[in-house]
Design brief:
The complex is a heterodimer of chains A (187) and B (217).
Chain A (H helix, E strand, L loop, with lengths): L2 E6 L5 H8 L3 H9 L8 H12 L3 H15 L4 H5 L3 E9 L3 H9 L1 H5 L7 E6 L3 E5 L5 E8 L5 E10 L2 H22 L4
Antiparallel strand pairs in A: 1-2, 2-6, 3-4, 4-5, 5-6
Helix pairs in contact in A: 3-4
Chain B lengths: L1 E10 L2 E11 L4 E6 L5 H8 L7 E6 L9 H11 E4 L11 H11 L4 H14 L15 H13 L5 E5 L7 H18 L2 E5 L3 H6 L2 E6 L2 E3 L1
Parallel strand pairs in B: 3-7, 3-8, 5-6, 6-7
Antiparallel strand pairs in B: 1-2, 1-4, 8-9
Classes of the chains: A alpha+beta (187), B alpha/beta (217).
The complex binds adenosine-5'-triphosphate and magnesium ion.
Magnesium ion binds next to helix 1 of chain B.
Chain lengths: 187, 217
Amino acid sequence: MDRKSTTFPAHVSSDTIARESGKTLKQWFSLLEAHVDELSLPEECASFINKEYGVSANLATFISLKYCAFLKGDSIEQETDKCFYTSATKTFPIGIHVLESYLTDESLRLSWLEPHFKPELINTGRNMRLSSRFNGLIQISFKGKGPQKCQITIQHLNLASEEAAIELQAFWKEKLNSLKKVLNVND
Amino acid sequence: MIKAQGITKAYGSLSVIKGVDLDIHKGEVVAIVGASGAGKTTLLQILGTLERPDSGELIFGESKPMLLSDRKLSAFRNKHIGFIFQFHQLLPEFTAIENVMIPALISGKKKNEIIDRASALLDKLNILDRANHKPSALSGGEQQRVAVARALINQPDLILADEPSGNLDSKHAKELHELFFSLRDEFKQTIVIVTHNEELARMSDRRLTMVDGRFSS
Ligand SMILES: Nc1ncnc2c1ncn2[C@@H]1O[C@H](COP(=O)(O)OP(=O)(O)OP(=O)(O)O)[C@@H](O)[C@H]1O
Ligand SMILES: [Mg+2]
């Protein structure tokens, strides 16, 4: 069983966005602006970037959130420099739907997560978001690696500082360990 | 205002909508009820042009949206239809009023007008005092009202709601239902609601029961 946790201070910087998506934020913003008639929801912007330009779903979501921030008046630089994030991942020897139920089923969820975490935007068998009292955006994704093997990745995005990212890295690592105990599986 | 005729839809070999005719008038609140798996959500998605039917015709005012290309269809949907889902999909990093404003900002409307309209909607929904809070600081009922304001910001002709009060306690559910009727009375808003809530279905102008992909009469 592998376990991996990462923090990427300023990882989704302007440079990374340009390198990984092939366009700068500014270019993405003008592109989205050119499609005002077709777009109105942030998720539509993300799916447009993802489907039409093959940018990964996570990065597309990130760009569309930056776009929303820009539209409400934040400057491009101000926002991108504030982007710290962390992620933790773990693979368990159980099926995807069982693992997913440890988030969607309230009593199972409470066995390893505090009550203020609530799943939303559930995309069954793929991903969901967690709303919480924490700052930032928590995105969870699942990847089946066989009928009885599944990887869970927790990303905590849009954090204000490197300290917050490091603190939350430790937090999510510990949470995945608690989940492992609850699931009662071996390494 | 919207007419659907002979709508069918199958997923693979599973026939989900088996011939639905429907005529919805402006200013009407229509409730669709029925057992789980009857096809309510699928039908709502077809009415909302999110899914294309296998056969049948959808007439929206003077237009036939199903004849449009995907691009033009998105534009059509953005102009005419607002959606409210059971799980409000608010952005956690934006305040309540920003969440309401975003669809209008993305649609390229004027910012000053958007602020005025968003404030008026939040006021109407009794949550103006919560405007600058993030969703995590709002109750479930307040979040759902923000989602309703967001669905209204672009002034859609039709609102489609899929179990909008499914996640709310009875007090908040009641408030939300009263809101739908006041939108109808004040703005002649047309609303189609899929619901398991008996009281809401009873209060509606029309109640349609779906059984296994059809309306039963
Ligand atoms: N994308 C899809 N692919 C395959 N089958 C689907 C898809 N969407 C819905 N179905 C199937 O179509 C049937 C009708 O589903 P639908 O979601 O419309 O039911 P519903 O009446 O809204 O039920 P509920 O009250 O539980 O929400 C179900 O059997 C469902 O499993
Ligand atoms: Mg449904």
